[in-house]
Design a protein that fits this description.
The protein has helices spanning 23-33, 38-45, 50-63, 76-91, and strands spanning 7-12, 15-20. It has 96 residues and is an alpha+beta fold. A two-stranded antiparallel ribbon has the order 1-2. Helix 1 packs across helix 2 (38-45), helix 1 runs antiparallel to helix 3 (50-63) and helix 3 crosses helix 4. This is Gene transfer agent family protein. It comes from Brevundimonas aurantiaca.
């Protein structure tokens, strides 16, 4: 894991995977949630459906380097923890 880049290691289905909230992931999240701008995305993230959660998870997995992340079978609790880890890891990068 490259903590300087804001990457985090997460466990999904017993497999260690890398998540990262990149600019590309943010753009993908906006598109996937059907919103424009970071403020709208942040507001929408407060009430994610299970489908929306998987959209966000796939985006942060792609940000972590996965070309085609499989997220359909991921437990929603694990998905939520993984997404939170991506956002938490990126928040430490804001001041750098």
């Amino acid at each position: 894991m490259n903590q300087a880049r804001g990457e985090a290691a997460v466990m999904l289905g017993g497999v260690r995977r890398r998540v990262c909230l990149t600019l590309g992931a943010l753009a993908e999240i906006e598109t996937g949630l059907g919103v424009e701008g970071l403020a709208a995305a942040a507001e929408r993230m407060k009430t994610l459906s299970a489908r929306d959660l998987m959209v966000v998870l796939a985006a942060v997995l792609r940000g972590g380097g996965e070309a085609r992340p499989e997220v359909e079978a991921v437990d929603p609790r694990e998905a939520a923890r993984a997404v939170a880890a991506a956002f938490e890891a990126s928040s430490g990068q804001a001041g750098r």
